[in-house]
Amino acid sequence: MYDTENGPATRTMQQNLAIIEEGLAPKVPTETVVKSKEASWDPSCIGCIQLSGACSLCVLLLGLIGGAVTYYVFSIISLTEISHNTVQNRCSDSNLWSYLLTVLIINIIVGNTPKKGAREKDTGETIMTAAVSLIITVSLCTWGSIEFWNTCVQDKLSDTLLFKMVEVTIYLQYSIITIIIFVIFYTCRKISSDVETSINNA
Do 117 and 22 lie in a common domain? Predict the structure, then answer.
């Protein structure tokens, strides 16, 4: 029969008690714990997680591209469906048609502007780019909001595709403004943290 009193667990406990009586800290077998944690992560599971992340990213990118293409197609259709003169005849003080055309042109210009890689951009350039984008977006959003919420436009142009596309554009700009403000806030916090770290290490 196996002698449980002299088993490995009993001997280890006795050794730890003896070490504690001598005023020393007992040795904890951390290597076994670390190995058990590492062994719990199956390489096949890690591969599945990475594959799922890559697939999700691809689906997100395809969704964004599809949404952008759909937005431009319907915007162009709305501009050809009704003319600026027709809009002026219904609402003499409305520049809704000109607003949507301006937004499309500016988006194309900004999208085709050469940009440096993410690694080449420094923090200051990121803040400046975000600030310029914020100014442009806020200006266009203000103009669009004034045109869209005009009483005459709401009454006489609400049944047109142009009206719907301007509405979509304004809400998109509201979302973009929120994202840009978050980016600027996050970048400023990062700069503050880096400066504080540099001061503490000096």
Answer: no
